[in-house]
Design goal:
Strand order of the largest sheet of chain B: 1-2
Shape of chain B: globular
Order of helices and strands of chain B: HHHHHHHHHHHEHEHEEHH
Helix content of chain B: 25-40%
Structural class of chain A: mainly beta
Number of helices of chain B: 15
Largest interface: A-B, 32 and 32 residues
CATH architecture of the largest domain in chain B: Orthogonal Bundle
Number of domains of chain A: 1
Distance between the termini of chain B: 58 Å
Oligomer: heterodimer
Structural class of chain B: mainly alpha
Number of strands of chain A: 19
Shape of chain A: globular
Helix content of chain A: under 10%
CATH class of the largest domain in chain B: Mainly Alpha
Distance between the termini of chain A: 41 Å
Largest sheet of chain B: 2 strands, antiparallel
Number of domains of chain B: 2
Number of helices of chain A: 4
CATH superfamily of the largest domain in chain B: Cytochrome c-like domain
Strand content of chain A: 35-45%
Radius of gyration of chain B: 23 Å
Strand content of chain B: under 5%
Radius of gyration of chain A: 19 Å
CATH topology of the largest domain in chain B: Cytochrome Bc1 Complex, Chain D, domain 2
Number of strands of chain B: 4
Chain lengths: ~260, ~375
Amino acid sequence: MRPTVLCLLIGLFAACGKPPIAVSIPFAAQFGAKSLTCAEQNGAIRLTDLRFYVQDVQLITVDGDAVNVILNPDDTWQQRDLALLDLEDGSGSCLNGSSETNETLRGSVPDGEYRGLSFTVGVPFERNHADPLQAKAPLGDAAMHWHWRAGYKFMRAGIRNADDGFWLHLGSTGCEGTVRNITACNSENRVRVVLTNFVLGRDAVVVDLAALSSGTNLDDALATDCSSGPAEAACAEPFRALGLNFPTGESAFEQKLFRLEEVK
Amino acid sequence: MKRLVILLFATTLAIAAIGMWWQGQRDYQWQIAPNAPLPDVPIDNPMSDIKVELGRRLFYDTRLSANNTMSCATCHIQALAFTDGKARAVGATGAVHPRSSMTLVNVAYASRLTWANQLLSHLEDQALTPLFGDNPVEMGMSGHEEELVGMLKADEHYAEFLPEAFPADEDPFSVVNVVRSISTFVRTIISFDAPYDRYLEGDEGALSAQALLGMELFFSERLECFHCHGGFNFTDSTTHANANVDRIGYHNTGLYNIDDAGAYPSDNTGLYDMTGQRRDMGRFKAPTLRNIAVTAPYMHDGSVLTLDDALSHYARGGRLLEEGANAGDGRRNPFKSEFIRGFELSDDERQALLAFLDALTDKTVLTDPRFSNPH
């Protein structure tokens, strides 16, 4: 039965009209203008980790309406409303990673004209605090679960040069309850990202780790790390780059980590 | 009518299942003193002898670390009351943990696990951190889950007993059954056979006159020890099967006061790292004092070398560090527990207290073959 006939028959007006269109949204790791990989390069900045969950992916119409992107569920990277992006391949300096990568969100939206993209770095509350050993992909990844903080690492990101480095583990902190029975978290630390002017097929989402580490001295030979702990002073600057107040985790600034660039 | 029959059948099945579970719980024979409280066991991981034995093998199996160099027992050595004698634990790849390995003796009675994490109440949840954590790397198994499952299937013992231990599981070769088995074994590591216990049971000769004087001091309002190290397990974070109150205690004992505003070293701020509340700075769980004489060095970071030094710390009402990065007078720590007030202690009294603490050593649990390496 053709979709149009089906529409007429069951009167689902909203679903009528044109069939949905497939969307593919690429992500790329960069340090400023330069692409960033795990490969060792003489003293230059290289990637040590870059994996993150995104939820609530939406495209924004030319009229300013947000439309949910329904992600194509698979058994590895995506649920309908949640995906794990993995921009490291376990080689070179990415010692904690794995060879599998996932650099693209794949899904569908109703046909239309879109001029913007939004998403949230995070995992929805219920799933974030459920039992990781019973979780469906992409939540079954032990490297992304933060067992002692009772939720997921929403993002693992890291860079290093010859003798200095920086890394961030982002996730909810100050949670109440007990593991598998978390009731609330003081600092949810989810990052809402809105990228206006995004054009499907033209733009990639650049994850610019220079922005994330801009408040960190990468030449003092002191590796800096932030694991989202409310007591960690080193988290203030990276949180600011994520648009988050530290340590409350509330959205307070414009995020600088994600930006658009035309696909080369 | 047909519906009613089905409903009746389903109800009967459900009741039978619950009954079997309950029977299973009751059938398990805890090998502990008859008057000891029974540990609280999660409903979804009931005790069984076969799981205990499986867990014991897994606990001592170095294939549970990514480079096959360490097992749970590397940091939890039976002769040291399942601690490791180190100030700070060291992982499979050499990474040093900020904290000291805790004893596993009577951990079945712990209402919260680890030094300072109010979220962790079950061993099944805690076991995932040493296995998979990467900051610091402990056993380093993150990314090696498939190898682990492959090892379970290939090993003669696990291949035979995992399906038997978890008969309801379609696929019993899983990480969840590894942590369930290990947790079940660890729950059996129970100590109620110290001279102190025998004294309580009526053996008046079990404690020397010196130890008895130490006991009196320990339970005195002058020394205040028992406020945090109280109850049958000598810690205020204790629970059991019939407990109806969730008892949890975290205390700042004035070990540090780096900025004179209460700070602890930044890699070890205790509960503050979890909550971000200033009042939680330096608050750690009071560990059990059972077998304390064999678990040196002491405190969350192993920074107190002997029990004698620990007594000096409490007698002073906080530790004074005169130099170094952590210099400061812990006695003035604004977040310090009200029970750490300091006290005068004569030499005789000090020796008496040490004798009492020594009488908490249960040689049975340190040598019982049930808890030893089966490989």
